[in-house]
Write a structure and sequence with these properties.
Blueprint lengths: L3 H13 L6 H18 L25 H30 L1 H42 L11 H4 L11 H9 L4 H36 L9 H25 L9 H10 L8 H29 L11 H9 L9 H50 L2 H4 L19 H54 L3 H7 L8 H14 L5 H10 L17
Helix pairs in contact: 12-14, 14-16
Keywords: Coiled coil
Organism: Podospora anserina (strain S / ATCC MYA-4624 / DSM 980 / FGSC 10383) (Pleurage anserina)
Protein name: Podospora anserina S mat+ genomic DNA chromosome 1, supercontig 3
Length: 525
Amino acid sequence: MPSPTNDTLTTIQRVLDRYIRPREEAAHIRRMIALHLESSLQHGSVREPLALVTDQKPGPASTTQGLYRQYLEALRANIKARDEFRKQTHETSHASEPEEDDSSNGGLERLQEHLAIISLEKKRERLQAIEKHLIQLSQKPAASPDFMNPKEVFRDSRSLPSIPREIVSAMTLDNTSTNAHLKDLNDQLEKHVFEAKLLLQKEEKALDKVRSQSTARPETTTDSAKLEALNKTRIELISWIENELSKASGDDADPPQGSLDNRFRASKASINEPLDMDAQLVSIKDKYDQYLEARKSLLNLVSQHPKPDIKPTKPEDMNSQNESGLSSQPTSAAQLLTPYLEQLLALSREQKGLIAQKHHLNNTISKQVKENTTALDHLAQESQLIPAHPMPGGNRVKSSDHTLSTSNDDYTQVSGRVKQWVYAAEQAKIATFETVAEKIEEGQVALEGSLQTLAEVDLLLGRKAGEGASMNEGEEDIWMAEGSSPARKHTRRGSKMVEQPAAAAKTGTVWDMVNGNLGLLRSDE
């Protein structure tokens, strides 16, 4: 809202705009007026500035005429008007002093009100911004009261299984020292719960990542694919159970405390699951326990095949035993297997050690094979030798990102990569030899051409063979004699056009007198 003070200032400025001139324009107007007055004065020039004109009335000059007389009359009128203006201003100033005080006080009050309004508007804008951001924050999920509620956080997670009996029995046995170790147990329990929550979060993140990356969708999955996946899961579960049972020892010893802690730590997954799910889990656990007991009993029966090395009894002995009332009882299977238990346990331990050693060797070899394969693939990508000389009979073996297994296929891949390098090296060597042979052949051809040219020059100059030899004896190249014979051989093996200069050289050329004995080597003569 515009203030009254601003309106007043705008009105005054609009009224005075036609009387206010810039400094340059005002100075120009003054110069023009001064020039006009100088042209009208009788004395020739204006000695005093126009702004220093006094209020005194000039005396009457009867001798003045023309413009100067008009100027004096106008000056008297101006002085008279100034006096009247001064009187009116003095009279009105005393009468309007109270009004001016009231108006000045009113203007100050309006100014203060305007400043207060501006500060209140700024404060209102700040409060509106704070309210807007608070509304936005209240709409976020974290603002809901159930955001950090454990029941809502772990609503879709699995419930915790029951505490194992071993832990319960251990806690009952240590009841005497409960007060002493209560704090430690509480800290350990909180630590396990925290670890379980972190593990659950990691698994959920991994599951979300796999779901986002997977191309298959539940609505697009067929029943046959689901059945195949269930069959594969069942087969893998059965194989894992068989491996665990084969690793287990014959006697059912108490599990160590570390395994109990691991099971207790792994059992912390979620809280507050519906009762029907708990009942189903309990029924599944009972069925699985029955399955384990049945398998253990089956394995015990399979492992216990008593083969007693007892001679058949004679009829007389049987009769004597019948007569004695069957006083001796038959030998049990446990008594027969007792001498072999120690050997079986030793063999089982040895077999476990061999399996562990085999697993370690397989891991080491697979790691080394993976490193070698990665290094060979890296070198093959950076090398220019293998693309230039590819191995025929198949494409290059592509590297795989999964973990290499110690199988014949992996060894075949490594050997195939090495064979590529060997084949490329052999091909490069052969290509180098061919290039060198071609260059030597080109040099020999060029040498024959130069010899032919020299022979033609000698013929054109009319030199004889002896003269040419004596003139060029000191300047002859040492390698020309050695290169002439292979060149002639090449001409015999090569084209027919170079063979004619070689025949002419045999009859009589400049090189016949050299005969391999250069002047440089025959310095003793």
